[in-house]
Amino acid sequence: MPTRLNPYLSFRDDARDAMTFYQSVFGGELNVSTFGEFGGTDDPAESSLVMHAQLETPTGFTLMASDTPKSMGEAATGGSFSVSLSGDDDAELRGYWEKLLDGATVTMPLAPAPWGDEFGMLTDRFGVPWMVSIGAGQQQSR
Predict the structure, then answer these.
(1) CATH topology of domain 8-68
(2) What is the pLDDT of residue 16?
(3) Would the pLDDT of 62 be above 80?
(4) Are residues 139 and 118 in contact, defined by beta-carbon separation less than 8 angstroms?
């Protein structure tokens, strides 16, 4: 397998919901393993939490996530990173943007940017910040 770089998101108790949502946005195959399946917790209340989830999309995206058990402290979501989607396919990227809007807070509407692309930022309903940039060269007239 080639080396790759992909986001690994941390949640507190809602990794399964978040990853199911991302699967509805991007499509693809979602595999989920729980702490209970691998003996990863002594707390029965945490046995159904996600130890590792991996979404492989038809376009080649890989998104991974897990829940953070209470014994490990606070879950590290938001603030220090953004997941960025960029490219030339207006319809594809705009479609992702529209789906990510469900329950999101828009921090910058998807609109023409000074550098020529369309650019927008939002924080989804799970607290994950996203940036979407649609290359100016391929945008369709609206």
Answers:
(1) 2,3-Dihydroxybiphenyl 1,2-Dioxygenase; domain 1 (3.10.180)
(2) 97
(3) yes
(4) yes
Is residue 119 a contact partner of residue 133, using CB atoms and an 8 Å limit?
yes
Integer Cα distance of 49 and 42 in angstroms: 12
Q: pLDDT at position 141, please?
A: 42
The mean of the pLDDT values for the chain is 88
| CATH superfamily for domain 83-138 | 2,3-Dihydroxybiphenyl 1,2-Dioxygenase, domain 1 (3.10.180.10)
3-state secondary structure of 88: coil
Q: Are 89 and 139 in contact (CB under 8 A)?
A: no
Q: Average the pLDDT over 28-34 and give the result.
A: 96
pLDDT beyond 80 at 43: yes
Answer for the pair 119, 86: CB distance below 8 angstroms, yes or no: no
Which residue's structure tokens are 């979602």?
A: 30
Identify the band that residue 80 occupies on the pLDDT scale cut at 50, 70 and 90. Answer: low
- The answer to whether the CB of 130 falls within 8 A of the CB of 100 is yes
CA distance 35 to 57: 24
Q: Which two tokens stand for residue 121?
A: 């930022």
